[in-house]
Every structure is written in structure tokens, then in C-alpha cells.
Amino acid sequence: MKQSFEEFLQVYLSIWESSDLEGMKRIISEDYRAREITGEEILDFGFEESVEGWKNGFEYVVQNNAKWDISIHSVFPLRNNQVMAVIEAAMIIDKEKLPHANLFFSTFSQSGNEWKLVRSYIEAGVQRQLSPSPGLSS
């Protein structure tokens, strides 16, 4: 499981970094559930709202000639077929790293040979971390 997840995670990050909406749609489970916290605002959402959020984010990156700045802070198994990854994502615009990031606690589930994003808890607009865990940057 560990090797297949590590390979999947690299594909997932590649899709994210290239702002590939169709690729992201294939990775998100149709039963996906998420909670995002922005300041005091709490938003619960599912697959359709997630796809719309990724679409908006990817369009913003393209329109602003930005790049994603993504770091993996930790990865650990939850169950026999589930793994959680803690991912920090921000943007770089005009070679300047934006001061805030989103922190994703993302749970992926394996069914057969296929991994899907099934749950997320997201802290939006947090101060960027100075450095990720050693050896886990993308």
C-alpha cells in the first residue's frame, strides 16, 4: 500500500501543480465530504462544490500567471486502505510567495488499485510555515 500511495500522491500533486481540472475530478470521490474553516466561517461541502472550488482556484492561477507552492508536511496511514496527507498550499505570483496558505488534512482511500480523495479538513488563509518536514517537499 505504501508504494502505491506514494506513486499516487506524486500524480495528485502533479495534477494540482499543473491546474488540471479534469485530472482533479478523476481523483475526487463522488462521495467526497469536506469542511473548510476561514477565520470564523465554517463551510461544509461535497463533490460538486469541491470541483467548483478547484475550477476557480485553477482559473485564478492561470489568469495571474501564478504557480502553486505545495509542501507535504506529513503522511500517515489511518486504516488498511486509507492514508492522510497534511498538505500546505499557497501561490507564488510575480516570483513573490504569498504570505498565507491553506492547510489541507486530506484523507485518501484505496479501492482495488485506485486511490480517491474522500475527505478533507481545510484551514484556509493561515500563516505560511517556514519549512515542511524534512524530505517531504514536492
TrEMBL record:
SUPFAM superfamilies, per database record: NTF2-like
InterPro entries registered for this protein in UniProt: NTF2-like_dom_sf
Protein name per UniProt: Flavoprotein
Natural source organism: Chungangia koreensis
